């Protein structure tokens, strides 16, 4: 099972139904990918995501979604020794997903689908990045986007 915490930073809280939608999308994606753990989703404004995009990716503009994986290999890994009997007490923290609500609204309008569809898409997209999926090549993009679409279809978020 995937535990999801939703935070609001510099934006008004979204409706509980939208928060539930994010959780459903992420839990469906986690089930399909056969992973469990914890994810934090932070909803922000364009100014905040612009700052994060600039500071962490070197891209000086707002974006729609950012992912910060906790389990990326080779980035300052630390070996932690845990007694096998205690392993279930330590959750698998997958990482953080940051979503710009203004960008979500803009893109939903631009692509001609609902805010809910775009929000679900961005949540699943960010989640798959946490798991190591990318869209740098045509083949990677095809695989990642087909996985996203499967999840969204099963949730009922069609275009």
Automatic annotation (TrEMBL):
Coiled coil: none annotated. Its cofactor is Zn(2+). Keywords: Cytoplasm, Endonuclease, Hydrolase, Metal-binding, Nuclease, Ribosome biogenesis, rRNA processing, Zinc. Its main location: cytoplasm. PROSITE patterns: UPF0054. Binds 1 zinc ion. GO terms for molecular function: metalloendopeptidase activity; RNA endonuclease activity; zinc ion binding. The keyword Metal-binding applies. One of its GO terms (biological process) is rRNA processing. Zn(2+) binds at residues 125, 129, 135. It comes from the Bacteria. Pfam families: YbeY. Its EC number is 3.1.-.-. The keyword Nuclease applies. GO terms for cellular component: cytoplasm. It is found in: Cytoplasm. NCBIfam families: rRNA maturation RNase YbeY. Belongs to the endoribonuclease YbeY family. Single strand-specific metallo-endoribonuclease involved in late-stage 70S ribosome quality control and in maturation of the 3' terminus of the 16S rRNA. HAMAP family: Endoribonucl_YbeY (MF_00009). This is Endoribonuclease YbeY. It comes from Brevibacillus panacihumi. The lineage of its organism: Bacteria, Bacillati, Bacillota, Bacilli, Bacillales. The gene is ybeY.
